[in-house]
Specification:
Elements: E1 10-13, H1 17-20, H2 25-36, E2 41-44, H3 46-52, E3 61-64, H4 68-77, E4 82-83, E5 92-97, E6 101-102, E7 104-107, E8 109-114, E9 119-123, H5 127-132, E10 142-143, E11 148-150, H6 155-160, H7 170-176, H8 180-191, H9 200-209, H10 218-229, H11 234-243, H12 246-250, H13 257-267, H14 274-281, H15 285-295, H16 299-311, H17 322-329, H18 335-348, H19 352-359, H20 370-375, H21 383-397, H22 404-408, H23 411-420
Parallel strand pairs: 3-7
Antiparallel strand pairs: 1-11, 2-3, 2-10, 4-5, 5-6, 5-7, 8-9, 10-11
């Protein structure tokens, strides 16, 4: 597939502070090595995009005309260790320069056969052909070590317009790797200036191909979706994704759009966790289980979703914060996680005053434990847990004022109650 391209790919020469900052000693030594063996090497992908936006480049990836075999011979001859050889069949070699920094260096390549997720590749020395296989125009640029920006497919223009476009035909690009649907939305949140300025033709093509996501692993989908929900326009992008049918393919067949709208109206100014957006779409604990089985959350994320769905409703107490204090003090999970989850529930509910109070609340330590019960003549057994829970409820209701001695005095009556039961 040949997309519309520039005859002269050089669009400008970078000389910014952010560009100069990338030249660590290790980067310079990597370049010297490739120069010594007469292999051209350029910076590729996301770092070029970020530098053109005036941002610091987070991760540097490199592209080269050298084949994996040639790179291995070169690094071996120079006594440079190579790590993680799993990328070799796709052209990636990872040298550890000065025993300090790892760099992924990938041979220019063409994707010959694709199955919607993986590709069989053929190596090339043509920079334009390599750019032509990439997903989005803004990710298809290269940067020379002298600052020259090589842009074959108008990625620089799209970046200036804050436009997200596939390289060439979107239908072909997506069918090569259906995860590109999720990447489209992630980069829209990174680059675009307006929430709903999508190319409608592009959205129609995404909609026509969305079922391909069913063959992509949940872990990969969640990796992209989480980044989208941490970016700009997260709520609007989530709604657009659901409109094109992504929900059915990622474990949310019947999204609760009404609850999502309520959440967005309440929390649009708060920085909420990605799980809050997803929890809003779920109607029950069972829905959390179904979504987790598809996307494979971490245990922390899964438990947050369960917690939000269980506790997002109205709560009653003698003081507004009391029910949330109880959730922390009576938790069966790590107390630190319970604190995080309560904060998220309060954000979800738009309860900013309560959130402020909760953030300034010093968690009191319950002054009774099993040893104290034993020292005060309570026989060991199943009764311990029930007695401690009862004492804790009394202590919480009295706003944590009772001391160990105060609570020990209540033991005879509580033991009596349990015996009578």
């Amino acid at each position: 597939m040949e997309a519309k391209f520039r005859e002269d790919p050089i669009v400008l020469k970078l000389d910014t502070p952010e560009f100069k900052n990338i030249f660590t000693q290790e980067v310079l030594d990597l370049k010297k090595l490739f120069d010594k063996y007469n292999y051209e090497i350029r910076i590729a992908g996301g770092a070029v995009r970020d530098l053109l936006l005036g941002q610091q480049a987070k991760d540097l990836d490199f592209a080269t005309v050298a084949t994996p075999k040639q790179m291995k011979e070169m690094f071996t001859a120079e006594n440079i260790r190579m790590i993680n050889m799993s990328g070799e069949k796709h052209g990636t070699i990872t040298p550890r320069i000065n025993d300090k920094e790892n760099f992924e260096v990938t041979t220019l390549r063409i994707d010959m056969i694709t199955d919607g997720r993986h590709a069989e590749v053929e190596f090339t020395k043509d920079w334009k052909l390599d750019a032509n296989r990439r997903d989005l125009t803004i990710n298809s640029m290269f940067l020379g070590f002298d600052g020259t920006v090589y842009d074959y497919f108008f990625g620089y223009d799209d970046l200036q317009k804050r436009r997200i476009a596939f390289v060439g035909d979107p239908d072909v690009r997506i069918k090569e790797d259906f995860l590109r649907i999720m990447r489209y939305f992630r980069f829209y949140g990174r680059i675009a200036e307006k929430a709903n300025n999508h190319d409608h033709h592009c959205l129609e093509i995404i909609k026509a191909n969305v079922e391909g996501l069913q063959n992509v692993s949940g872990e990969r989908i969640w990796m992209e979706l989480k980044k989208t929900l941490q970016g700009n326009f997260a709520g609007d992008l989530l709604k657009t994704m659901l409109n094109v049918g992504i929900g059915q393919c990622i474990g949310i067949p019947n999204p609760n759009l009404e609850e999502l709208d309520i959440l967005l109206n309440r929390c649009c100014h708060l920085e909420i966790h990605p799980m809050s957006y997803l929890a809003a779409l779920l109607k029950s604990i069972d829905d959390v289980t179904i979504l987790h089985s598809r996307l494979k959350f971490s245990s922390y994320e899964r438990d947050m979703a369960y917690f939000i769905v269980e506790h997002r409703g109205e709560k009653e107490g003698s003081r507004p914060l009391l029910p949330y204090e109880k959730l922390v003090l009576n938790t069966k999970i790590k107390q630190k996680d319970a604190v995080d989850y309560v904060r998220e529930v309060l954000k979800y509910r738009g309860s900013e005053n309560l959130l402020e109070q909760f953030n300034s609340w010093d968690i009191p330590r319950f002054p009774v434990d099993g040893k104290i019960l034993k020292d005060n003549g309570v026989p060991p057994g199943k009764m311990y847990g029930r007695i401690i829970n009862k004492l804790k409820d009394i202590w919480i209701d009295n706003e944590y004022k009772q001391t160990t001695a105060d609570l020990v005095k209540l033991l005879p009556s509580i033991i009596g109650e349990h015996k009578n039961k």
